[in-house]
Amino acid sequence: MEVILYSALAIAIAALLILVIYMVILLFNTKKTMDEVLQTLGKIDHQVKDVTGEATEVVQKSKGLVDDLTQKSNQLDGIIQGARGIGDTVEDFNKSLQQLSNIISKHSKEDQEKAAQAVKWGASFFEYWNKRKQESN
Questions:
Q1: Taking the model in full, what pTM does it have?
Q2: Alpha-carbon span 112 to 94, nearest angstrom
Q3: Which UniProt keywords apply (predicted)?
């Protein structure tokens, strides 16, 4: 019976030894896998830093473009306001010319009437003078 007991003990120790060997192999493989994961994470971290740097650069350029567009928009607003001012000035000038034209037209009609009246008076005067001249001859 002792032989069976020692045999069982030897089998148990051998099984335990095989289990320990498999555990050591498993730990080495796990370490190898973890090293590869760590290396991959290092590469990903480097790529993320590169992308972050590029994204920061893009954001800064975008801010510069927005500032430039804002500045140009403000300048364009000034130009538009200037054009409106010019348009208002031209409109006022046209109104002034229209008023001047109306005044000239009105005075021209008055002067025509006065000239026609003067011609009538002159004609009457010459007619009267010619009659007097004929009567005295």
A1: 0.43
A2: 26
A3: Membrane, Transmembrane, Transmembrane helix
